[in-house]
């Protein structure tokens, strides 16, 4: 968009005004000193009172302008400007007056030279429009020429000395106009350049703003993407949990119920069964009901953990007391396989955990160890304080000398989508849910569950519970 010429002109005038006011003090002081020096020379050195008196008007104007400016430097621009223009005229009248005084004298040539010098100074200093400049140059020279030829009557030699003034005056005017126009063009170029710089800066700032908004939108999109991915992962996990849940209900609950159903039918329909057979059937029913109850108990606990509705209340508990209580419950199960269980835990060792969760963890891991340990096998339970990466833990380890596991089996132990459970050494059934529940509860404690195993040599499950600072 092209700038309005009127606005540029106004801007240029404002620029000239600022330059005028900025330099006015130094110009006036310099001019006053120079005029005072020449006035002193005319009066006391050359003893020419007429020549000295010609300097009174411009000297007075300079002093008046200087006083007004020093009183108020920023205001009264028009008054200062008018007086300054009048001083241009006064300076020329001063020099033309000196020429008339020195006419027919030897000092004529120096006066003409001085006049030419004043004309050039005015040409360089003047920053006014063409009309005003023409008036400043024309009025003094017209009056001087009229007086010169009417009253002065210069000789031929003096005429040729004086005539140098006129081409110099015209040249000074031309130089002044050229300088004025160059100054205006330079101002216009700088003004337009500044406008372009401002536009460029504005566009740059706008670009930065847009880039910032785009960057924020990109980050928001990335956050949304990550959130969607997390929700997808949660959904996939939820679906896998649901499938596993339904699979357990469809298979692991169905089988023992089917056994109870079949045996109960046999008891009802076969009256000829002996006491030993009836007792065997009742034992089978009892085992199936126990298995179903444990499975349901784990299933309900796992479901509550998945829904984040299970209560978590960590407190300080004696590790030996917890393990001993679970061993008492599981003693009969171990005795059925003649498995020896040793508990090597200090009576003063404590752990910080939720009581119900840690009982479930210990119970499931010991049950697992019994299931996969051979008849007449051994299980050791031990505990100690350990430090891992500058963090203190209470470690409870269940070690057996049973069937052990391969690395692939260990990797799949806690995979929800895969049922990694295999039959025990006495063909005990399992759902694999117990280990998932252990892992879930350990994670709630922000602990660690480690598994070490070698096929045909046994396994070691280590539960690490963080030590709470109290």
Order of helices and strands: HHHHHHHHHHEHEEHEEHHEE
What's the total number of strands? 7
Class inferred from helices and paired strands: alpha+beta
Main beta sheet: strand number and arrangement?
A: 5 strands, mixed
Low-confidence runs of at least 5 consecutive residues: none
Report the mean per-residue pLDDT as an integer.
Answer: 84
InterPro entries: HATPase_C_sf (IPR036890), HATPase_dom (IPR003594), His_kinase_dom (IPR005467), HisK_dim/P_dom (IPR003661), HisK_dim/P_sf (IPR036097), Sensor_HK_Regulatory (IPR050736), Sig_transdc_His_kin-like_C (IPR004358)
Transmembrane segments: 20-40, 52-71, 107-124, 136-153, 159-178
Keywords: Coiled coil, Kinase, Membrane, Phosphoprotein, Transferase, Transmembrane, Transmembrane helix, Two-component regulatory system
Coiled coil: 204-238
